[in-house]
Design a protein that fits this description.
The structure is a homodimer of 216-residue chains.
Chain A: H1 14-27, E1 36-37, H2 39-46, H3 50-62, E2 67-68, E3 74-75, H4 81-102, H5 108-126, H6 130-146, H7 151-174, H8 182-193, H9 196-215
Antiparallel strand pairs in A: 1-3, 2-3
Helix pairs in contact in A: 1-3, 1-7, 2-3, 4-6, 4-7, 4-9, 5-6, 5-8, 6-7, 8-9
Chain A binds a DNA duplex (30 and 30 nucleotides) through helix 3.
Chain lengths: 216, 216
Amino acid sequence: MQAVSRPPETTPSAHDRVYRGLRTRIMHGQIAPGQALTLRGLGKEFEVSMTPAREAVQRLVAEGALSMSSSGRVSTPELSNERIEELAALRALIEVELASRALPRAHMALIDRLQTINTAISDVVSNRDAVGYIRTNLEFHRTLYLRAQAPAMLAMCETVWLQLGPTMRALYGRLRRTEAPQYHRLIIAALKAGDEPGLRLAVRSDVTQGLRMLAG
Amino acid sequence: MQAVSRPPETTPSAHDRVYRGLRTRIMHGQIAPGQALTLRGLGKEFEVSMTPAREAVQRLVAEGALSMSSSGRVSTPELSNERIEELAALRALIEVELASRALPRAHMALIDRLQTINTAISDVVSNRDAVGYIRTNLEFHRTLYLRAQAPAMLAMCETVWLQLGPTMRALYGRLRRTEAPQYHRLIIAALKAGDEPGLRLAVRSDVTQGLRMLAG
DNA sequence: CATCCCGTAATGTGATCACAAACCGCCGCT
DNA sequence: AGCGGCGGTTTGTGATCACATTACGGGATG
């Protein structure tokens, strides 16, 4: 995530700090499904009043990252199997398209960075670090998709990741895998070969693989 | 939009009223691109204080339905051609999938309703009613996609519609069409025949057709 | 006549407060 | 021991306020 240019350097607003903090926590699976959150608690934790905390929470609820009961209480959602299947299908649809759009722009420097990230994934996997695995895995995908130059699609994609965050925690915390995802190697190989059908299949497989066993 | 069961009948909160009111306005193209909005103005219009107005606006900004300047001023976005192309591609991806999932569940009653809506589209088109056209057209699509039983996908789809709302207003207000969309007939025919490839093609064509001339 | 500058009005932000609803644990009853 | 009602406490909601920042206008100056 290099920030090459940093023109304005404005201080982020309070609700943005809370929003971003919560968002990465959720996306990286640092919060278990069903975990309850309170506005005053969040406000105290981020050292702001209830107002910014409320805005951040409302926004995350709107994005499906948090669920709100009829009385207004918020918690991380516990997804049904049907919803997990839907979200996995959305990941497949959007990420295959993003990868396909990134392929013509994927030069050697990008592939090198992907390979570096992939070895980092092996490290966190051997350390049994579920959160680190999710974070590094998403970084692999985002690095590739950034080359697609499709910000609207990438935003949609990240929204889906966000919704799956707590569920992925439950998944990867449960199964104790010992190897890096094999489909990442297929993705890199397809990128090197300029093989678009192979890339689409590899991305689709990588996305579907993990979620299938959870929803199944 | 029939509400078959209405169990709790709770009074919607103030920020929800503002949110929904603004949302349908934007999605139906009742606000031109670049139109500015103020919190106090919205609060006065919906007879609430600034707090609920702010929450509604923030949520719409998060969904991409409104854009916020660095100083916090909000307005409907003026989309670049690249972004329009992206959103059209997203519509194509998601709506083709939704239609495909709806196909096995599409019985005669659904097809009848779609035909009824389609004749309504002819009416509003002959009346040169751009807003009515957008609303009825979206109702056609939503009626079909509801049968897919895929709420997460439908929500994503509506988010894309929302982002395209002001732009569609500019588009359909400009070109003065005199006929109902021909691809809707193809969609209905493919539904009747159970022709999945034909349905996918028809939906993709219908979605892409309108936006192409705007972004081109 | 154009341009720059400054003051006033308007706007977003965040804190605080009052209120109502919901949750939770305790106590008494059966 | 199980269960239902009840009160205190927690929690979300919305209004209001003070403040900083910005946008916008007129007027003076070159």
